[in-house]
Amino acid sequence: MVAHRTQLRSLNSDWEDDMAETPTQPSGPDLAQGVALADLSDGGMLAGHVGDEEVVVARVGNEVFAIAAHCSHYHGPLAEGLVVGDTVRCPWHHACFSLRTGEAVRAPALSSIDCWSVEQRDGKVFVKDKRATRPAPRPRPGASPDRVVIVGGGAAGFAAAEMLRRQDYKGSIVMLSSDEALPVDRPNLSKDYLAGTAPEEWIPLRGDDFYAANAIELRLKTGVGSIDPRGRQVALSDGTTLAYDRLLLATGAEPVRLQFPGANQPNVHTLRSLADSRAIIAGAAAARRAVVIGASFIGLEVAASLRTRNIEVHVVAPEKRPMERILGAKMGDFVRALHEEHGVVFHLEDTVAALDGTRVTLKSGGVLEAQLVVMGVGVRPRLELAERAGLPLDRGLTVDAYLQTSAPEIFAAGDIARWPDPHSGQRIRVEHWVVAERQGQTAALNMLGVREKFDAVPFFWSQHYDIPINYVGHAENWDELVVEGDIAGKDCLVRYKVGGRTLAAASIYRDVATLQAEVAMEREMAAR
Ligand SMILES: Cc1cc2nc3c(=O)[nH]c(=O)nc-3n(C[C@H](O)[C@H](O)[C@H](O)COP(=O)(O)OP(=O)(O)OC[C@H]3O[C@@H](n4cnc5c(N)ncnc54)[C@H](O)[C@@H]3O)c2cc1C
Ligand code: FES
C-alpha cells in the first residue's frame, strides 16, 4: 500500500531536512557501478542510488537521464510515474519535470530536482556526477513590463510570482493579499494539518526569506478595493494607489455560508484560510461531536480529519449520495462506505434548519447535539473587483486562451477564471489547486509577452483517510461510465464518457493509468 500522500513533507524545506532524524538506506542498484542498457526499455525507469542519494535513470530512445528519485512537491516516487517525451510526470499529483534540466515544468511542484550526468559504455549506463543545471528562460519578444501587480496571495498568485522570477524577470513584483498569512498549501488545511498530522511549519508555500530573496514585495492584510483599467492602477484598502503595467487577478473564492437561525454562532465555521483551519482545530479541542454540513470534497475531508482527532462526526447534506454529481453513483457509494467504516454518520437528503447553542435541528425534524459545526457547501468566486472594473463576467471572469481579460493589461487565473478549455470544447471554471497554479504560471509567461495558450488537462486530487482520489479532465455530464478494476477494492479507474470519448477519469491507486488518460486527452486535442 502506498504511503499517506500529504503527510510526507513540507513544501518549504528540503526533504532531507524533514527526514534528518530518520535516515534511510538507499535501495536498488548502485547506479554509479552501471546497469545494463538492455534493462531499460524506451520510456522505462529504474530506481537506484548513487552514494547515499536516491536516483532514477530514465531512457528516452537512445538517451538516458538521471534525476532525483522524488518529486519536490510531496516527495512522490518518480520511478512510479510516466515518462512523456523528455519529461517525467509524478504519479501522485501530476507535476512534471524536465529530464534534461530537472526543472519543475508543471505545478504542483515548484522547485526543480537534481540531475546527474550519465555515461554509456559497453552496453551499460553509468551515473556520474551531479550536474549544475539552470533552465533557460522562455524567449519573449519585446520589452518586459516594468511593474507587475498580483492581486491574491493564493495558488495562482504565488505560482505566477515564482514563474516571473524563474523567467529572469527583473521588474518589480508586488503581491497584494487580504489574507494575514503567507501564501499557504491550502489543500492541506482540510487534510493532514486539520487532522493534526502535519505541523504548522509545513503550511506556508515558502518562508518569509523567499520573498525577500526574490524581490517579491508581498503585502499581507492588504485588500484591493478597486481597479482603474484606464489609469492602470489599483486602489488599496489603506487608501493608497498602486500603478501597474500588467495586473494579475487571482482573488480565488470564498466559502458559501448558509443562512439559518443560529448560523452565525461562533461554533459555526467555514474553511478557506489558515485562520479558518486554526479556528476549527481550536473548536475541535473542546468538542465531542461535530456536524459537518455538506458531503462534497471539503466537507468530507473535514469529516475525515475530525475523525482522526477522534471526534464523533455527523454529515448532513441534501444529496442522495456524496459526490455523485462529480464522480457518479458507484464512486459516491464507495466514498460513503469508506467514511462509514471510519465511524461517520450520514444524514443525507436532509439539511440543517436551525442551530441553538449546541442543538442542531434538521429539516427532517431530527435533533443532534454538536459542539462544533463546519459548513462545506461550496464556494463563490470573488468577482467584485472585476465586476466594478467593468470586466466581462460569465459565472466567473471571462478570459481568453491566454488568460487575458478584455483589458489587455489585465490577466486572471485560478478559481475566478472561466477559460476556453480546448479538451471539453466548453468555457469552464474549476476550483482545483493544480489548475490555479498552472494558470498562474501561464499568466506569468503571457504577462511577459510569451503568448502561450492555457491548454492543460484539468487535474485535482482529494484525500480521505489514506485513500487518494485523483481526477483528470472535466465532465459535467456523461452518457457512459466505465469502471476498470474494482472500486470497493480501492484499485480502479473510472472513465466518464460522452459519445465513446473519455472526457474525464477518476482513480484510486491507478496512478500510471491516470497519467496515461491525461496524455491521451492531450494527444487527442493535439490531433484535432
Ligand atoms: C481547505 C481546502 C482544501 C482544498 N483541497 C484541494 C485539493 O485537495 N485539491 C484541489 O485540487 N483543490 C483543493 N482546494 C481548492 C484549491 O485550494 C483552490 O482551487 C485554489 O486555492 C485556488 O487558487 P486561487 O489562487 O484561485 O485562490 P486562493 O488560493 O483562494 O487565493 C486567493 C487569494 O486572494 C486574496 N484576495 C481575495 N480578494 C482580494 C482582494 N480584494 N484584495 C487582495 N487580496 C484578495 C485572498 O486573501 C487569497 O490570498 C482546496 C480548497 C480548500 C479551501
Ligand atoms: S508528490 Fe509529486 S506532484 Fe505531488
Please tell me about this protein's structure:
Helix 2 packs across helix 10. The chain is an alpha/beta fold. About 2% of the residues have low confidence. It is globular. The structure holds flavin-adenine dinucleotide and FE2/S2 (inorganic) cluster. Flavin-adenine dinucleotide binds next to helix 2, helix 10 and strand 32.
What is shown here, in short?
This protein is α/β, with parallel strands linked by helices and 528 residues long. It is globular.
| Cross-sheet strand order for the largest sheet | 1-10-9-4-3-2
Heteromolecules bound: flavin-adenine dinucleotide, FE2/S2 (inorganic) cluster
Compute the number of strand runs.
36
Instruction: Please tell me what the overall shape is.
Output: globular
What count of helical segments does DSSP give? 11
Largest sheet data: 6 strands, antiparallel
Main traits of this protein?
binds FE2/S2 (inorganic) cluster; alpha/beta; 528 residues
Question: How would you summarize the topology of this molecule?
Answer:
Elements: H1 15-18, E1 35-36, E2 45-50, E3 53-60, E4 63-68, E5 82-84, E6 87-89, E7 96-98, E8 104-106, E9 115-121, E10 124-131, E11 147-151, H2 155-166, E12 172-176, H3 192-195, H4 208-213, E13 216-219, E14 224-228, E15 233-236, E16 241-243, E17 246-249, E18 253-255, E19 268-269, H5 274-285, E20 289-293, H6 297-308, E21 312-317, H7 324-327, H8 329-341, E22 345-348, E23 352-356, E24 359-362, E25 367-369, E26 372-375, E27 379-381, H9 384-388, E28 397-398, E29 410-412, E30 417-421, E31 426-428, H10 433-447, E32 459-464, E33 467-473, E34 480-486, E35 491-498, E36 501-508, H11 511-527
Helix pairs in contact: 2-10
